[in-house]
Amino acid sequence: MQVSGKTVLVTGASQGIGAEAAFRFAGRGAHVHLVARSAELLDQQVKRITEFGGSATAHQADLADSAQIRALAEAVPTPDVLVNNAGVGRWLFLDDTEPDELVSMTAVPYMAALLLTREYLGAMRSRGSGWIVNVNSPVSRVPIPGCVGYQSARWALRGLTASLRLDLRGTGVGVSEVVPGKVSSEYFVNNPGAEERIPGAARLMIPSVTPDRVAKEIVAAVEKERAEHLFPWQLKAFEISGRLLPGLTSYLAWKTGTHR
């Protein structure tokens, strides 16, 4: 898909991956709608984009609230590209996680992507064009200990992606899933304790990537119409080993992961 002249909606766009993706799409000539909870941070990103000659609009919304998702869909016409990037959640054992926090982990990313995509899907089908990108986590491929609520939501997002891909085959509407390795973003600052739960084997094998690198891969996934992209290559190799040698990969994740 050629993104120049298209409209792109990016969730979780106030910082990190979402902000960099919005910046890159704008740099490719798209008008970008940035969505996040923080109006102040969104305004900073819009200013950054416009200072570089791009076109962008900010929309403050909490995507954990279905009513706000509906209001957002009424305010923003069906985009050519929808990037479901918003995600929250600490890495905890299930019985250490309060019920309300489990609900919020499910609400974003999974329910947010599910409901927002639903709002736009009918119009995309009718016109026979559009692209949906779901940004996912490595734990949707290789589970790790001490991360039940967060990674369950990420597996649900993976299921949504696979289901949509089948439903939309032949309609002109495409779906990409972009799965980066550990990202050097604000996530680990905002969720203290999560970084320490990455299994030692994964830390040794899989290098970190920057939000800008992830943004570049998101844009490339749309332009090249890629169904799935795991990177860096070490993550892809780890994922393949999990399919070929599930017992060994699971043992390494457990052995070098979090224990009580």
**Strand order in the sheet with the most strands:** 3-2-1-4-5-6-7
Q: Which whole number gives the mean pLDDT?
A: 95
Supply the helix-strand structural class.
alpha/beta
Distance between the termini: 48 Å
Globally, the shape reads: globular
Number of strands: 7
Largest sheet: 7 strands, parallel
User: Order of helices and strands, N to C?
Assistant: EHEHEHEHEHEHHHEHH
The total of helices stands at 10
Round the Cα radius of gyration to an integer and report it.
18 Å
Give the uncertain stretches in residue-range form.
none
Helix content: 40-55%
Strand content: 15-25%
Describe this structure in words.
The protein is of the alpha/beta class. The protein is 50% helix and 15% strand. The protein has helices spanning 16-27, 39-51, 66-75, 99-127, 148-167, 187-190, 200-205, 211-223, 233-244, 246-255, and strands spanning 7-11, 31-36, 55-60, 81-84, 130-135, 173-180, 228-231. The protein has a seven-stranded parallel β-sheet, with helices on both faces. Helix 1 (16-27) links the parallel strand 1 (7-11) and strand 2 (31-36). The mean pLDDT is 95.
Helix-strand layout with pairing:
Blueprint: E1 7-11, H1 16-27, E2 31-36, H2 39-51, E3 55-60, H3 66-75, E4 81-84, H4 99-127, E5 130-135, H5 148-167, E6 173-180, H6 187-190, H7 200-205, H8 211-223, E7 228-231, H9 233-244, H10 246-255
Parallel strand pairs: 1-2, 1-4, 2-3, 4-5, 5-6, 6-7
Short description:
With 260 residues, the chain is α/β, with parallel strands linked by helices. The chain has helices at residues 16-27, 39-51, 66-75, 99-127, 148-167, 187-190, 200-205, 211-223, 233-244, 246-255; strands spanning 7-11, 31-36, 55-60, 81-84, 130-135, 173-180, 228-231.
